[in-house]
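[Q] Does anyone have a clean structure-token version of this?
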Amino acid sequence: MPIVGWIIIGVVVVLVIILFATYNSLVRLRNQAKNAWAQIDVQLKRRHDLIPNLVETVRGYMKHERETLEAVTNARNMAQKAVGGGVGAQSKAEGELSGALSKLLAVVENYPDLKANQNFLALQEELTSTENKISFSRQFYNDSVLKYNNKTQMFPSNVVAGMTGFKASEFFEVEVAAEREAPKVSFS
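[A] Here you go.
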């Protein structure tokens, strides 16, 4: 076999190796993004489980704030229904739940006895911890999606992505304006 034949075989082998490596890296990044979304789901489930306890603890103190409590409960129910409905639908529902929870915690400031209740304080601390974990999980998810989307859209991996059906993923975005605003802190 002449030297040109060996060169052609070598180039083909190198191209096949690059194709497999690119495909495998796309699969790894897609799975990493899916795992990141699953981590958000874990924290959202924890949040959904905490809310009924928080509402029940607050209910006894806040007899005149029925509308606020109902808004939190309805937002929680809508967020639970949005699970599995895609990143956009779920992020919108979770944003509305965050807004309702923010209102609830703002109204709590008017009830000093409630703020001193040990059950409420424990639930509030657990909810705050969960909110922080959700925030970190969202950030990790968006970082994973960014890496994956870059890989599916940049040359030469976009060629492999197009041939094998890899599509860009959706970012988790804040859609509720109230979530974009800085929280109001009061030490009174």
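[Q] Thanks! Anything notable?
[A] Residues 3-59 form the longest helix (57 residues).
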